[in-house]
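Chain and conformation:
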Amino acid sequence: MTAENNPTDKTVQNSTEHLKPYQFKPGESGNVNGRPKNAFTIKNAIGRLADSIPEESDKSRADLLAELSWKKALAGDRWFIQYVTENKEGKPHQSQSIVTQETDELIEI
């Protein structure tokens, strides 16, 4: 059995010679025009949804979102409970202290 036919030969398994025709040439880009300006993103989708709320509504978009968040929190949705609490009360402060037993000298830089 030759090295070309032997599947356990590492030089055959790790070879990338067959990929050379598909690699980018120096100075060549795979994305010449870059990312499209109106890419399909969550941010754009949320913006479209917010814009679809009728202007004649007596509530602002923020009021509608707050009302929905409040209802979800009251229904027991844990994520919305945390969201409403953190936006009403603020995130809890977390402090950390580090105590060491070493008495090395301070090194000035």
Q: What stands out?
A: The first helix runs from residue 10 to 13. The mean pLDDT is 78. The two ends are 65 Å apart (CA to CA). The helical segments are 10-13, 42-51, 61-74, 78-89.
